[in-house]
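Protocol step 4 of 6.
Sequence for Aminopeptidase (Coprobacter secundus subsp. similis) entered exactly as in the expression construct, tag removed. Do not edit the line below.
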Amino acid sequence: MLKNVLTIGMMMFIAVGTMAQTVEKNDSVKNAKKTKEYQFTDVKLLKTTPVKNQSSSGTCWSFAGTAFLESELLRQGKPEVDLSEMFIVRHAYIEKAEKYVRMHGTINFGGGGSTLDVLDIIKKYGIVPEEAYKGLNYGLDIHRHGELDAVLEAYVKAVITNKNRKLTPSWKEGYIAILDAYLGKEPETFTYQGKEYTPKTFFDSLGLNLDDYVSITSFTHHPFDQPFAVEVPDNWAWGLSYNVPLEDFSRIMKNSIDKGYTIFWASDVSERGFLYNKGYAIVPDDKVKDMSDSEKARWTKLSEEEKQKESKEKSKKEKLITQEVRQEAFDNYETTDDHGMQIVGTAVDQNGNKYYKVKNSWGTDNEYDGYFYASEPFVLYKTISYVVNKNAIPKDIQKRLNLK
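Step 5 output, structure tokens:
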């Protein structure tokens, strides 16, 4: 879930600190927040752990995934746990390199990943707490993966283009040595709160059943009520998502929050209405694609403040999102796989329009301390897929999908 433009955006929002408290359910009337244009009132908030900062790394998928699982533990009444994002990243990078080499370099290779990567990696290798594996072995206290990603990509490209006409078994050892140098060696055992664990025994101690989680999407180029691998570059592992009509896609999300389950969300964030620093994401009815080429060029050069100012009047009315509109945006590359986040609640603005509250991983330096509000049209339009606890899915949809 990464674009060059997104990486630049992340760097704008780097903040070393994180939130000091856990977000709890609260009185929506007392939790109204304001911007120049919008006043948001939280309707329902679910428990979360503090906002983190992926800094200049393309690992949003891992940060969002650990945040999602941390909230699942809180929902179950268990103590707060800070899970290691980089433990997951390390193993995903190894598996991605293996597939890249096996596919002769014909799949995507980079820092991005999909929502399902987090679940798959933990199932195979377990997990560790953040204190046992920070993944910061290069002299910084924030994640900066520009050099690491460039070195890894150059290495695997050299492997597949070598002139020996045959691969040696040593290439993987060399690749892992790079990860050891930058992220640190994987702990075989560690002590946490006075007890010794391996990554697998620590995962077992959490009591999470990863088979409870499924990925949902909504596109018309595949049959409904069947799983398929969403065709985005960062789905390198070809993970499967259940395909449902847009109406059910929305019902599942609403039911999930209503029943107390957060959502692991993969979305496009390149739209002109995505104004993270201002704390909201909308779909203005006037679209960039309707501009002339010169207008588009001018728009892309505007600062976020200038975009916000120009959209002030027009953004009040949002585009009507249908299944066809959503599909067209995916087919023509307007909707792309940019970013992984966690949906943690619902809200309304001063006009009664509905929003989802989103926890990001770009630190706390924005209007809402690392959170923002995404309108329902934005979510329906820009979502690639999301992961939910299958128990949050309405029973009739569970039956159609044959979920047990």
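Step 6, annotate. Confidence is low (pLDDT under 50) at residues 3-32.
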